[in-house]
Amino acid sequence: MKSRAFTFEQAKSEFDYVVSSYEDIQAKEIAEICTYSKLSPEMSDTNILKNGGKEWLIEPFRGLQPLSYSVLQNHASDYMVGFRWIRKIPRPALPRNQLKHNGFLVINNTVLWVNIAFRIYKEKSLPEAIENSWLKNASGWRTTSDIVPVN
Fold it and tell me: What is the sign, positive or negative, of the torsion defined by CA atoms of 66, 70, 71, 76?
């Protein structure tokens, strides 16, 4: 059976809540992100929201990949981040005490996962136009049939 990419409705159902503005993130999640990202604060997808959301994310495309820029500017939703609390060990008696969050855009009701996770190295085999557009402000772009890991 062929798997299909996540729709926006499917993505929303996987999260406790979804925001498109940094100011809408709840205090509990902000505190957790600040706690676990002190060594590498750029590892949180919320930084795309903090830096300006979709506009900041796609700005590098403007000169290097103008057609991609136009499609993303005109057809992609605002950049959103979904939050969910999970159990580290999957036992119902344990509390949900580990935060997971994933950033994404929606194009034609298809979720395009966009992560900002810290990249230790730059891939030297990619063309400069790719490195300085798609990977300038994000470390990965993908569609999947389920939620992708944070990294």
Answer: positive
**3-class SS of residue 141:** strand
8 Å CB contact between 33 and 42: no
pTM higher than 0.90 for the full model? no
Burial class of residue 77 in the structure, from the number of CB atoms within 10 Å of its CB (0-12 exposed, 13-18 middle, 19+ buried)? middle
pLDDT tens digit string along 28-59?
999 888 887 654 556 789 999 999 999 999 99
Let me know: does 125 contact 149? Beta carbons within 8 Å. no
- Tokens standing for 99? 């935060």
Looking at residue 24, the DSSP 8-state letter turns out to be G
Tokens linked to 90: 């999957």
CB proximity list for 67: less than 8 A, separation 6 or greater: none
pLDDT digits (tens, 9 = 90+) for 59-85: 999 999 999 999 999 999 999 999 999
Structure tokens at 1: 């059976």
HSE, side-chain direction, 13 A CA sphere, residue 97: 7
Residue 127 class from Cβ within 10 Å (0-12 exposed, 13-18 middle, 19+ buried)? exposed
